[in-house]
């Protein structure tokens, strides 16, 4: 076995692992019960999957221009995915688009100085409001 064959095997393993993680993220988006769980599935394995795909591609392309572009794509993904997930989570929380019974700790309700609403109340408000239940004007 020469170096090229080893690099091909490593690149293939990275590409396959990245594809499987991205597939797991897609399955999680379809299977998880609420917004916060789906947001987790959309960000955590998807980012790692993309980074593995970029690493496998960088191993195969091996030119400075291509690797620089792939590194920039990876950096931008690492910077934007957590910010986007945070904003989606906060918006969904304020709109009541999650299940409180699935939360172990509700730090945002504690930080805002109001008690956490029972899960039945959240579901009732979400089902009765036409566009969700936005009870907080902030």
General description of the model:
With 138 residues, the chain is mostly helical. It has one domain (3-128). The chain has five helices and no strands. The chain has helices at residues 3-31, 35-61, 64-95, 107-111, 119-128. Helix 1 (3-31) runs antiparallel to helix 2. The protein is elongated. It starts with a helix and ends in a 10-residue tail after the last helix.
> What average pLDDT do the residues reach?
83
Helix fraction bin: over 70%
Q: Strand portion, in percent?
A: under 5%
Shape: elongated
Work out the radius of gyration.
20 Å
Order of helices and strands: HHHHH
Give the class from helix and strand content and strand pairing: mainly alpha
* Count of folded domains: 1
Question: Using DSSP, what is the number of strands?
Answer: 0
Largest sheet: none
Features:
single chain
Short note summarizing the structure:
The protein has 138 residues and is mainly α. The chain contains five helices and no strands.
SSE order and pairing:
Layout: H1 3-31, H2 35-61, H3 64-95, H4 107-111, H5 119-128
Helix pairs in contact: 1-2, 2-3
